[in-house]
Amino acid sequence: MKVVPFSPKHVAVLAFPFGTHAGPLLSMVQRIATEDPDVKFSFFSTKISNAKTFKLNKTGLSNIHPHNVYDGFPEGHVPSHPREAIERFMYAMPQNFRSAIDRVVAETGHKITCLITDAFYWFGAEIAKELDCKWVALWTAGPHSILVHVETDLLRERVSNEVSDDPSIDFLLGYSGLKVSDLPEGVVRDTENPMATMLHKMGVTLSQATAVAINSFVDVHPIIVNVLKSKFQKLLNVGPFTWTMPQHHIHDEERCLEWLEKREEKSVVYVTFGSVITPPPHELFALAEALEECKYSFIWSFVGNHKKQLPQGFLERIGNKGKVVAWAPQNEILQHPSIGVCVTHCGWNSILECILGGVPMICRPFFGDQKLNTRMIENEWRIGVAIDENGGFTRENTTRALVSTMSSEKGRVMRKNASELRECAAREIERNGSSIRDLNTLIHIVLS
C-alpha cells in the first residue's frame, strides 16, 4: 500500500495594514488557531503593520507566523502622508501577496488549504481559485456599511436619475431616512480613486466567498442582516469581537480607572476619536470650551500634543475635573458605571464598545462609514445624537449635545436603548446564541 505523506492544513491570512483592520483579523485568527495547534497560519502584512500588530496582540501560539509583504516603497523610503502609504500599497497588490504566499509555500512545502482575507481584498476570489482552496472574508465594520458596497451599482444607477442634489436612498431595505450624503466616499460620488475602485470590486466579488464573517451580531440590524444573507453564500455574525475574540490588555499607566472610581455614576464624559483622527484646531477649542462650560467631569483620550493644541490655560482651569491622556483603556472605561456619554468619531469598534457598556454617544463623523454609522445611531437605534448637519463642533452645538445626553430625559432614553442592545448582544454570545453558532461554523469552515 502506498503511504501518503501527512500534509498539515495551512491557512494564509491577508491583512489590510492600515487603520484598525489587522488587529481584529489577527484576534479572529488567534481564536480559530487555538482549536487545532497542528494547523499552520501564515499571517501576511507589511513589515510595519506586523511589528505593531503582533506587539499589541501577543498570540502565545506557535502555529501563527507573521510574514512581511512588499509595501510599495523602496527600502528606507518614508511616506510624506498616510494617503501616500495606502495608495502605494494598493498599487503593489495583489502581486505582493501572491509572491509572499508562493515563497512561504515553497519554504514550508505545505500548500494553502484555506484563505482568510480582509474583505477589502476582492482578489481573494482569484487567489483562492488558483490555490483551489476556500475563501473566508472578514468585514470589520457593520452590516449596514457592507451592504451599500454590495449595492453600489444599484445606488449609482438610481441616483444618476434623480433630480435632487441629495436624494434619499430609502429604496434600499433598511435605510429609511438616509440620503446619498450619508454614504461613504466613493460609493456614489468621488468614485475615481483607488479606494473607491477597491471597495466597488469588493462589493461585486464577495458573493464568491465561502463565507463572509462580520464583527457584529444579528440584532444590530436584523433586516439588513437578512438581505446580506440573500447576497452571500454564507454570512457569519461572529461579534461583538470584544466578547467573542481574544483581547489584548495594556497597562493603564495614566490610572484612568482609578480616577473614575472617585466619580459618581453616569457623571463622566469620555472623549475619543480613535487612534488616527484629531479634529481641526477650531473644533478642539470649541469642544474644550463646551466641556469647561458644562462642568461635567471628563476623560479625553487625545491624539497629538494636548498641551499645545488645547486652549491656553484650559488644563489649569479644569484641574481635577478632567483628565487628558495620550492613551486610555477604552473598553474598560466604557464598562465603568461612572461614564455617562462618549464623544466619538463613530468608528465601528468604538460603537460596539459603547453598546456593550450601555453608553450613549455624541457623534462627530469624519470619513468612511462614520457618517452612515452616525445615522444608524441617531435614527435607527436611537442611542446617540449627531453634532449639527453642516459640520463639526461649535461651543453651542456641543454644549447642547452634552446637556441633552447627560442631563435630560432624552439622554435617559438613549441609555435605556443602548442597554437593551447590550442585552441582545449578551444573548447572542450565550452557549446557543447566534454569534456562538456562527463562530463554530467559521471554525469548522477554516479547519475542516
Automatic annotation (TrEMBL):
Instruction: List, in alphabetical order, the Gene Ontology terms for molecular function in this entry.
Output: quercetin 3-O-glucosyltransferase activity; quercetin 7-O-glucosyltransferase activity
> What PANTHER family does the database record attribute to this sequence?
FLAVONOL 3-O-GLUCOSYLTRANSFERASE UGT76E12-RELATED, GLUCOSYL/GLUCURONOSYL TRANSFERASES
The family line of this record is: Belongs to the UDP-glycosyltransferase family.
Top-down, what is the taxonomic lineage of the species of origin?
Answer: Eukaryota, Viridiplantae, Streptophyta, Embryophyta, Tracheophyta
Keyword Transferase in annotation:
yes
**Pfam families associated with the record:** UDPGT
Task: Provide the protein name.
Answer: Glycosyltransferase
User: What UniProt keywords apply to this chain's record, in alphabetical order?
Assistant: Glycosyltransferase, Transferase
- Gene3D superfamilies from the xrefs? Glycogen Phosphorylase B (3.40.50.2000)
